[in-house]
């Protein structure tokens, strides 16, 4: 910052107005001349519009500087460190997380078994477009869901003319998976990154799930499952069909990512995720927690930002 020039805090773009995700590999992520860039081994720079993105996926072969991490945090772009093809998640940043009321509401609904069942039933309704069977436990609904999902995979494989056996892959042996499973893994990785960015930006916790439990991304899986069959699963099968038919093109993972990007834009997914979470928690029957009367106000005023939950 130049002497005598007042500092103007950044006002992040609302998540719903951002592009989805970008994958980076083989280079150093840095801030040069005020720009967020990826620098390759030859010194060539590619500028990344970090303020307009929801999430950056950092694949093997990338290094990132402190300045780049700080800038991503200031503009509210989630950084996720993933394995090759995005098939494994190692770590993630946290651009949001400043909304304790939403976090407490989520936790209260997840801990109350009656409220939790209501949320799971609402998820089932959104996912399959019909009312779930009455008087069923969460375990029974999970079994019904699994059977329907397997059938949906079969139907999509038939529709796109893809040779299909079952959903099965080993993240430690990526290249040993068949083409449809590799496409599905790459596609769901894109969706998980986008959902986690939305969850964190809104101030919820990725680990506090309802149908899924015990994983760092349990809630991410819950939310992603609602949208995956209208967005990324058809993309995965369409790419798999082209590959199995012998059509040449970019690497499979790149084809899938481009298709997912277009699907996210076409379905306005970023604009829908946070309101969907709010509607699901409302189904719990529990009201959001009220302000604690003994709460101490902050010593410094909270800066205004583009997204609720952003740290500013």
Calculate the terminal CA-CA distance, rounded to whole Å: 19 Å
The overall pLDDT average reads 86
Task: Label the overall shape.
Answer: flat
Radius of gyration of CA atoms, rounded to a whole number: 21 Å
Number of H/I helices: 9
H/E topology pattern:
EEEEEEHEEHHHHHHHH
**Helix/strand class:** alpha/beta
Short description:
The protein is α/β, with parallel strands linked by helices.
In terms of topology, how is this protein built?
Blueprint (H helix, E strand, L loop, with lengths): L18 E6 L2 E6 L2 E5 L5 E3 L5 E6 L3 E3 L1 H10 L2 E5 L6 E4 L7 H12 L1 H16 L9 H23 L18 H24 L15 H10 L4 H13 L7 H15 L2 H14 L30
Parallel strand pairs: 1-5, 2-6, 5-7
Antiparallel strand pairs: 2-3, 3-4, 7-8
Helix pairs in contact: 2-3, 3-6, 4-7, 5-6, 5-7, 5-8, 5-9, 7-8
How is this structure best described in words?
Helix content is 44%, strand content 12%. The strands form two sheets. A four-stranded mixed β-sheet has the order 1-5-7-8. It has nine helices and eight strands. It is of the alpha/beta class and 312 residues long. The protein has helices spanning 66-75, 100-111, 113-128, 138-160, 179-202, 218-227, 232-244, 252-266, 269-282, and strands spanning 19-24, 27-32, 35-39, 45-47, 53-58, 62-64, 78-82, 89-92. The longest helix is centred in the middle third of the chain and has 24 residues, at 179-202.
List keywords for this structure.
312 residues; alpha/beta; 4-stranded mixed beta sheet; 9 helices; 8 strands; 12% strand; flat
């Amino acid at each position: 910052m130049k002497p005598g020039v007042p500092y103007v805090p950044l006002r992040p773009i609302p998540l719903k107005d951002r592009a989805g995700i970008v994958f980076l590999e083989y280079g150093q992520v840095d801030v040069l001349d005020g720009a967020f860039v990826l620098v390759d081994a030859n010194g060539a720079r590619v500028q990344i519009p970090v303020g307009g993105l929801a999430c950056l996926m950092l694949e093997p072969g990338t290094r990132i500087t402190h300045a780049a991490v700080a800038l991503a945090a200031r503009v509210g772009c989630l950084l996720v460190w993933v394995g090759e093809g995005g098939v494994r998640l190692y770590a993630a940043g946290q651009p949001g997380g400043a909304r304790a009321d939403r976090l407490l509401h989520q936790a209260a609904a997840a801990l109350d078994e009656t409220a939790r069942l209501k949320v799971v039933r609402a998820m089932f309704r959104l996912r399959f477009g019909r009312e779930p069977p009455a008087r069923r436990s969460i375990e029974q609904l999970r079994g019904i869901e699994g059977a329907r999902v397997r059938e949906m995979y079969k139907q999509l494989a038939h529709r796109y003319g893809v040779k299909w056996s079952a959903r099965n892959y080993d993240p430690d042996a990526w290249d040993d998976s068949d083409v449809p499973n590799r496409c599905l893994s790459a596609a769901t990785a894109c969706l998980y990154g986008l959902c986690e960015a939305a969850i964190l930006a809104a101030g919820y916790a990725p680990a506090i799930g309802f149908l899924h439990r015990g994983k760092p991304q349990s809630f991410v899986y819950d939310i992603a499952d609602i949208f995956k069959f209208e967005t990324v699963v058809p993309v995965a099968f369409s790419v798999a069909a082209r590959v199995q038919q012998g059509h040449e093109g970019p690497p499979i993972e790149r084809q899938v990512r481009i298709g997912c990007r277009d699907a996210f834009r076409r379905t306005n997914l970023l604009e829908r995720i946070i309101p969907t979470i709010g509607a699901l928690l409302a189904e719990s029957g529990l009201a959001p927690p009220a302000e604690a009367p003994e709460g101490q106000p902050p010593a410094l005023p909270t800066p205004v930002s583009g997204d609720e939950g952003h740290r500013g």
